[in-house]
Amino acid sequence: MEKAPGSPSVGGSCPQKTAEILSSQYGINLFLAGLVLTFAWAVHAVGISKSHLLSYLITLMLIQLLWMLWYLCRSCTQRRLIREKDTHAGARWLKCGITLFAVITLILDSFKIGYYVDFSNCLSAAEGIFPVTHAVHTILQVYFLWCHAKDIIQSFKTLERFGVIHSVFTNLLLWTNGVLTESKHQLNEHKERLITLGFGNITIVLDDHAPQCNCTTTTLCSIFSQGIYYLYPFNIEYHILASTMLYVLWKNIGRKVEHHQQHKTPFKFHGITVGMIFGLIVLISTIAKVVVYLIQIGRSKNKSELALTMFYLHAISVLALMCTAGIVALLIYRLEDRSLDNSKNPARKLDAELLVGTAAGSWLLSWGSILAIICAQAHPKYTWYNLPYSILVIVEKYIQNLFIIESIHRKEEKVNDDIKTLRIVTISRGSTLSLTPSYKEIYNGRAARDHGELPYLLHGSICARENDGAKAAASQANCPAMHSAPEFSFYSRNSVTNNKRRILKNIAAFLFLCNLSLWIPPAFGCRPEYDNGLEEIVFGFEPWIIVVNLAMPFSIFYRMHSAASLFEVNCKT
Description:
By secondary structure, the chain is mainly α. The chain has two domains: 16-200 and 217-255, no CATH class; 269-412 and 494-572, no CATH class. 68% of the residues lie in helices and 2% in strands. β3 and β4 form a beta hairpin.
């Protein structure tokens, strides 16, 4: 039986599969141990303090730092060797995104150091060592990902599998720690706001981990303590992005790839003006909504209800527009006859799995809200807006996932070899007006499409070829311009294709900005799942809060990951 392209050699398949299984089990146990320790700290288990959790995380980061230094040193000594690269992994825009989040994470670490200095009398040494270690870890990891995210490791494979998977689960634990810390802060604020909505029958017990001593500088302490929680969303996104990039690196270890040149598709603003304008309107209105929501919620019962009503109406409008845009894009795909690319691609496979997997978080919350509305005995007016909102959340993610997954699996259109060698002569009224751009411009897609000039086909043949420029002018008299519709079939097909592509690019740009907009509210504390109070009455306060705290991080990550995928779709379209 013929071996499929891209598969590893038969001789090395069994040991490498064993190493993959062993390393994955090591990573899972590493993660579960940290998860249990995190849970024990969260519920104030006897004998478990925050210093124990931080000491565990510091140890994991130090081990990862040693492995990254080993890998970087070995790469420097083998710089002259030709290394295989996965052209689909570690895109430049993804590296720029993780760098931005990393910079904000470093600011967060500096705030934590300042917080430790102010409360040093009653904080453990681990709380001062952790932000310093984390800052060093962040700087080195971003450098590592910039230089080696595309690597396909072919030496020391067993050792590297353990090193990479250790890095993956270290970042996942740091993500979990950030999510838990930020969720506890949001929960405390939520408990204080419930009284203003009239839910006084819910027991309010604050989960307080504040240091038991006075701050040396009150003003600075307030700035550091409040600023930390506004920066956590960026820290959370940083670690989840790092873990996904490292996971792709782990999957690529020992992989055999076909050697072909990947055509680069840079992002261009040309042709997406409509999508960008509507997307920016959604983004600006969302920021305004979040500001008003955070100011009004908890002030009084009437103001809180108005804030919730405003949130639901705005979200319903945005989700309806996103559903419409997604359906239009899918209809365009149904009209096109283009095959899908089913070749092995770990980065693309992970993108699709993350889209569906993380969407389940918001689907869970939406179905919970729908059931609460149906089963509740009393319905405040604002809760009825929650019903269409929850339904649209489910439908919108369903449609958007179909659009993104099909887009990243569609094969790119190949340029005909004959077109690459032609220099087309445009003809108007029997006279030559100008020569169209050269082969390089045609191949890069800047010919005809951008200037509105398309080649005239003369009875199935081209009037002029690149090497026959002089003959072309002489033969124009024998090349009559044609005016009948069938003879302009090439022009028509190309025009329709360009229009479809322009629509798809505008839809991708619009959805990209919409997903960024929908990431902002939950990431910065605008969470009606906490504040409307109906679900807490139906399911009970603690059960519903547990569901929200488990599902919300996945819902937040979904929006950022969707935005990243849609950016790639826009570049590819």
